[in-house]
Structure formats: C-alpha cells, structure tokens
Amino acid sequence: MVAVSSAGEVSGWNTYDRTKELKEFDETKAGVKGLVDSGVVKVPRIFYNTPDVHLHLHETDQSIQNHSHEQIPLSFPIIDLKEFIIDKKDSSLRKEVVDQIRKASETWGFFQVLNHGISISVLEEMLQGVRRFFEQDMDLKKPLYSRDVNRRIVYNCNFTLYNNPSANWRDTLYCFMSPPPPHSDELPSVCRDILMEYKKQVIRLGNALFELLSESLGLSNKHLTDMGCADGLSLLCHYYPACPEPELTIGASKHTDGDFLTVLLQDQIGGLQVLHQNQWVDVPPTPGALIVNIGDLLQLISNGRFKSVEHRVLANKIGPRVSTACFFTTGYRPSTRIYGPIKELLSEHNPPIYRETTVKEFTACVHKKGLNGISVLEHFML
Length: 382
Fold this sequence. Notes:
single chain; Oxoglu/Fe-dep_dioxygenase_dom; 4-stranded antiparallel beta sheet; 11 helices; dioxygenase activity; IPNS-like_sf; Jelly Rolls; alpha+beta; globular
C-alpha cells in the first residue's frame, strides 16, 4: 500500500522529479500497454493514486479512498427503449420511458438502455476494433501519438497527463467524428470500418435520447437537438491493461464528463463506478446494454435539474478492459453559440444558477483543469 502521512502526502512523493518521469514515459509513445508488455511488475510512481485533497465530506471515509467494493443495495436504472426505437409505437409506454429517464437523470445522472437499436454484432465488433488498434505493432500506432488537442485523431496515454495529480492506468484513441466526418484514410485501418458504422448508429441513438430528454424536461421533443446538443460527436476508445498493483493506482480518476451526453459501451470486465448517495456503486456490465450519462453541459443548460455525476474506473489485475465512450459535444469546432440555462425552465422561484458560456470556452476549461476531482461547473456558477 502507499504510505500516507497525517498531512495527506504520499511517502516519497516529493523525493523524485515527477515532471521528468512523466516526460520520459510520454516520450516512449508506448503508453501503459508498453509498460505491461515490457514485463513491469511494479506500478511506476507517476501512476500512484494520490490522496484526494478536494474530498467531499462524504468521501473522507478511508474505505472509499481505498477503492472499497462494499456496495449499498441499490438497483442501477435500466431502461428498455424497445417501444420507442424498435417498434416505434406511439403509446402510453413512451410516457413511461420519459418518466424513467427523467427520474434517472435527476437522481443518478446515469442509466443503462436496452433495445437501443444497435445490434450485438456491431457492439462486439466495436470492442474488437479497439483491441485490434491497441494490440497492433507499436510502430503502427506511434504516428498517431500526440498531445495536440486540435488534431482529429489522436492516440495517447491520459489527455491531461501533465495536469492530473496522478496518471491513470489507461491508453486512449480519440476520434473526432463529426462535423464534418473524417476522411476514411484518417482513421486507423484496423478499426476504420467499425468506427464509421458505430458512429452512424450512435448518432441515430443520440438523437432519440435527446428527444426523450427534451420531453423529460417538459420541452418540445426537438428542443435539445435544435440547440445543437447532438451536432458534434467524439469517440474515446479506452484500453485498460491488466495492472500488477491495482491498489496503488486507478483506471480513471473521479470526474464528470464535460459534454452534453455520453453513451458508453463497456466490456464484461467492469470497473466503472458511479458516486450515488455518498457511496461508490458498481455499474454492472449488462450484455447488450449501453450506459448513458448526463454531461456537465446538460446540467448547465437544465439549470441543475439533470445531474452530471462523478464516476471513476478502478484498475484491475484482470484485463485488458476495453470501452468506447461517445461524447456528444461541439467543443472541437469553431462556434460562437452561447449556452446557458434554458429560459423555458427558469422562473422567479427557479432563477439561473449558471452563467452563459460557449462550448469552446467550457471545453478549454475542462482541459486546463485536468482530472483533479473538482467539477468544472463550479467555475460557471453565478
């Protein structure tokens, strides 16, 4: 275990040149997978999961800091979209789905969807495509390794590696898919076809989800799409190698998503946890399901009604764990559109609690902050 002093410092944390070791690791362009392939049996210090100096009161319990798997008996929301997406019946069941999404978005900020219209074969091929990319020869991946946030296709280890309090045990392929769509030759050949197909199907699902979310807010079903919430899509393909000392590090630090909405595909290894009712709750891998969560920007424009909830991914001795997160956001294309709390949701008794911003400004703030445990929304509160 990592020794922690009464001052909250990791023993030996200040006895080495962290910036130098980060740079040396980054310059290998091999990522965490490169460490594992080299036969590493000890987690390097740059990956030590440092004590969270921004702990909420409910997180001060040592068991939570130590990745406790103890769970409270809660049922993670699972919503069946069959009547809405597959059968497309205009029935009372639509109202039931809208009510379920409203409740989950206001309380959990997360829910799983079944019968979402994307076939099992496409989901499985997407996960296999991610594995093929990360498990190909290193020389084929290195040309995509970059920290340039303006590039459309990027592979690296931790986007905010130098800003995070600790490095996370994962590598990522980032693909900005629209608008406009990338040229096919920009995408890695080993997963090009499935990336294009998955993008098309997730955009269709995203538009359906934004309809249901609009109705859940009491708005017309096209309100959120008319605002441009579904205009942009980024795919983040994560690869979490097996970790020799998972108690020392973490797959993804506690964070919220800086987008409007995220649709996540995870494999059967699991490890994703959501902070709910002051405790970390496992998100169970459910065959055929996709996980949907509210992003910071949707919390902002809903004036806090929908919750962008903190979540994390544990490191694991089993692996690799593979996932694909689809971010609906317009943050990587020039836009002067102003976003603030939706006026139809405001009243004398419900005044705005967030200031207006552009997605470009909001996203820049997310990148600058890194995964430091503080919600970026605090910067935009009135």
